[in-house]
Design brief:
Blueprint: H1 7-17, H2 19-31, E1 35-43, E2 50-64, E3 69-80, E4 86-92, H3 95-100, E5 105-106, E6 111-118, E7 126-132, H4 133-136, E8 151-162, E9 165-169, H5 173-193, E10 206-217, E11 221-225, E12 233-235, E13 238-246, E14 251-260, H6 264-285
């Protein structure tokens, strides 16, 4: 009859399978000021089954009690304890790709009708322009912004040693990482989009958030920029990968932050917290911007000086 495992063997088994990593990540997330939960359930939007997020974090950065308006950040974290490194292959991010990096943002109002603007291609023609909240607040250039990355990954692969050689593959990446994160992000974004309210009605809530899907790995991360003059693999503390998903009930672009676990605290401080604080500062100057759909909804006392209302 086999002997029971020793205490050290119990801990070793938990470490290898990643259960302890989830607890370590939870503690780091809480230390950064987020509420954190492990194994948070959500409904699979394609199959209707109950799924789980390894670690879910939430932090409100701005709350306006009188208008019942909230802006916060949500972390959806998948934890992996692989035996070998991940490699992200990509290139210099184009302006189009940087716009796609906004995919985690969800505001009660999609934006403002800011009035007639000159047509960008037809001289003498004016068109009604709809300005997204992201652009109104100028968030692309904010410190820590998800759109500030100069590199964008397109391929996330894992390395596997076979004999004396290393091989790259992605057999588990889509179903084991990309799809679970995408499903969770879309589920929680509906919390915002399903709320309906009229401007400045006290009994309704304007719920606004940025969701960061994060892959946390206990192993190393290498980044390969194929636009570099000398293409090389460089170890990095964190990077990102953009993927598209088109399933039965979802069509989504998702930017996944890929972070080494030992650098997660620094990532949260330099990226998540820095961005959340900056967004809150800009909202605080004119909180009404999150509770209206057009300029005429705003009270005359609203401070509009910092809003991007001019021609893009």
């Amino acid at each position: 009859m086999a002997a029971d495992p020793s205490p050290d063997e119990v801990l070793s088994a938990l470490q290898v399978t990643g259960f302890l990593l989830e607890q370590e990540v939870r503690k780091i997330v809480e230390s950064a000021g987020f509420d954190a939960a492990i194994s948070r359930a959500y409904q699979d939007p394609d199959e209707g089954k109950s799924r789980e997020i390894d670690v879910l974090g939430w932090k409100p950065f701005f709350i306006h009690d009188r208008f019942d308006c909230v802006f916060g950040m949500r972390l959806i974290i998948e934890c992996k304890n692989p035996k070998s490194p991940y490699v992200v292959v990509g290139h210099a991010a184009s302006e189009y790709e940087k716009r796609q990096m906004r995919s985690g943002a969800s505001f009660w109002s999609s934006g403002f009708n800011v009035g007639k603007m000159p047509h960008p291609q037809i001289s003498g023609l004016e068109v009604e322009e709809h300005r997204p909240i992201w652009d109104l607040l100028g968030l692309s250039d904010a410190p820590g912004s998800p759109t500030s990355d100069s590199f964008v990954g397109n391929q996330l692969v894992s390395l596997e040693r076979k004999g004396s050689e290393w091989f790259a593959g992605n057999s588990h990446i889509f179903d084991g990482i990309v799809m679970p994160l995408t499903k969770a992000v879309n589920t929680f974004k509906r919390i915002n989009s399903n709320r309906a309210r009229e401007a400045f009605h006290d009994h309704e809530q304007s719920h606004n958030s940025v969701t960061l899907p994060i892959l946390v790995t206990s192993n190393k991360i290498f980044e390969v920029n194929t636009d570099a003059d000398d293409v090389a693999a460089a170890e990095v503390p964190w990077t990102n990968v953009m993927r598209q998903v088109h399933s039965k009930n979802m069509r989504a672009n998702i930017k996944i932050e890929v972070v080494q676990s030992k650098y997660l605290g620094a990532f949260l401080e330099q990226r998540a917290i820095a961005f959340g604080d900056e967004v809150a500062d800009r909202i605080r100057k004119c909180p009404e911007v999150l509770m209206a759909r057009q300029l005429t909804d705003l009270p005359q006392t609203a401070n509009l000086e910092h809003l991007n209302l001019g021609q893009c």
